[in-house]
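User: Can you write out an input/output pair for a complex, sequences first and structure second?

Assistant: Here is one pair. Inputs:
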Amino acid sequence: MKKRLFSVALLFFLGCVSYAGNNFRVAAMASYFQPSERTFKSIYGGGVAFGGEVSLRLWKWMRIWANGDAYNKQGQTTLTAEKTRINIIPLGLGLMFELGDSRIRPSAGFGFGYFRYRETNPIGKVEKGEFGYIARLACDIKISGPFFFAVRSSYSFCKVNPAGVEANLGGLKGGVGLGWEF
Amino acid sequence: MKNNGTPFGIWYLFLSLSIASAIGAPTLRAEKDNTAKNLPEERRSGFFANPEELLYDDFDGHGGKQDDGTYLAKSGRLSTDMWYGYADVVQVEGHRNVLKLKMAEGQMDLNELTLVNPHVIDVSEFRSFSADVMIPSGSSSKNFWVGLDYEGGIHTQEEDGGWEVWIHMGSDGRNAGIGCGWAYHPTNTFKSYNLPASINTWYNLRIDIAIIDKTKIRTDFLVDGRIRFSVTSYKAKTLTNPLSMAWGPRRCIRLWKETNQGEATALVDNVKAVYHQRVAPASFSVLYDDFEAGTLSPGLWGGDAGFVSVVPPEEYKVDASHHGHVMKAVHPKGLLGTLRAELLQIATMYGRIPWGKVKSICFDFLISSKSDADVFPHIGLDIHGISQLNSSVPDGVSWHTDIEGRGGGGKALIGAVLKDNQSGVTPSYYTYSRWPEIKKIDFDTWNNLRMDIIFVGNKLHFDFFVNNIPLFSETPQDHGNPGPDLAIGSWFAIQSQLLGQAPSGDTIVYIDNVRWVRTYGLTIQAGKGGTTKPAPGNYLFEASRKVSIQAVADPNHRFVGWSGDLSGHRNPAEIIMDSVKSVFANFGPPYPPLNPSGQRYLNQSLLQVEYINLLKWEANPENQNISMKYRIYQIAGSTKVLLTELDSKTFEYWHRKVQKDIQYKYGIVAVSDGDKESMPAYITIQ
């Protein structure tokens, strides 16, 4: 279901892009990701993720957005304290609702995410992908001309169980970036 | 004869004549020995012998070493395993226990102690006979002597013929002298010498014999290690032929008092007899003779010459296809007494094989119809021994068991006898005697007679068979049972005995397939940390039997290997009983690690999880002096899989990626440098 919805949204987004080029925004982001699951926190903890985002207006205050970033972190196994490394690439797609068209434009959104992940350690190696959900609050602040300053916070949720243990790859993420509006 | 000018020299002439008379030389004459001019160099010390070959007694418990490491000699008393006769053992300063020979006022003649087994040691095997001798002051007898005698008799020569060599120390109560001499019948050669000596002084007296060739024996007489006299005898060929030895050679310690007046005392210590080329007790397991060689083997048979012979089948013409040459034994008309053909090799160095070492005796037996005696002797295979049981028995107990035939008046019988008589009681009586199930047989028919000896508890039990059919069985009671350790004494022989009435004719029997099976002792010992199956102890097994022994380690110990007459670490191991054997099962080190423990843990990353069995142990301090490592085995049923090998400083192991709900069993072993593993320390984790 999530996969189908995500596909529909992606097609819709691409259609929108080809339709208008109206009020298209693109931004480069640097975020700090704080996982919500305790095990995740204890093994890897939070970390910086770098990514990007695009959005365009669909109708008045409603925009469609897509983003992606990469979280790469090293930790220790719980008993043996051996080195373990995780790599998560969440790709998000959703709708956001933007208030006003002033210099400061706050928004809230919701969407689906496809979480591509890989973990490598002495126990083994897993590499898979899973769909999840993303809710976000954002604010674009115009700086000058087409440039704007982007502030983002999001909460994601993605339950996986690739090797007999269930985990949530989501969490809170907050970041800033620099965007360009067409 | 040397004369030192003292009255002792005269005395010694009488002494020597007395000795020669005692051995039965009919006419003796004293001669100066010509060979004395050619004495060997005095530095010569005779010869060197392997200590194992020593028949030695210091009366302090040393001497007569046995195959099992024990000693026949007893401390502070006379060992009945080594001596026949009686004397006190007393303590004297500087010599600890010594033998005290004493003859009281009113007594005279001989107080004699004989080293056991007069029959086996041939003259040619004899090398040396020595002892420390001292005459203490205080003897009131005016004419006595003490010393060493080596003597024998030769029946193939004239009746009562004999020979003797001796070295003595004599005393008239105040002075002392040392003399030696030799007498050989039938040539009546007799010679002697003497040297002055002192009262209250120890002297080492010694006789050495060396075989020069087949006809000459040289005898050296030594005092305190110096050769004083030497003589080369002739007729050695007769002496060294075992078939010619009717009795002896005997080795005696003697105290002789010429008159019944006064008291005589002498002390003796460190008696030593040395032999060469003796028949080792372990050199045979089964003696068998079917007489197909056509003659009596001189190495196997000895005794009364002429009593037995080997004859071809034409002589007896009975069942020749099965028997071929056989032994023929004839008890002649008119002869009262005993005739004997001995199995020479059955005796040990000391002439005694404990009852417990005899397993089975059997032979084929035929009474000839040509026997025309009105009274038949007992004739058969006979074991006769003399054992001194204990102090409650006043004298030596003579043991006798045989399975034999006899007859008379046209009857032929087979029976068995098991009896003992106390020879010190007059008249002798049998505490047990049995000829219970006499079996009538036909003349000129072969019958197989057999006696088996087994144990019932610690008592000997005898089974007698005729043609493999039980005749009777008996377990002698009380002191009538000698037990397994007492010895068969003087002979093991085909013997014919007739007492009381002279036979009117010859008794002729034929004997074949004489078979003697012995047992051998097996001593099993186990070291600390285990036991064996059979349990540690002393066992007797029939010769040639293959015995399986299993080492069983205690928990926390391991079987390291065998020592003694087994080696390696095969378990169970087999040993063939072809001699007296001793095996030792060794256990540990390495000893297994201590305090083994284990627990299952979860190890995980974010997306993956594993279970780990953590094993822990501690070093066993008993392994501290050996280089160690550890091996971890996973055990599943009867199989074990090596998981890892760890160094000696590692005391834990993580068995990773184990199943969450499965029980695991581990064995942790310590491994020594030689790759010997300890018993496992087990850990089970559920």
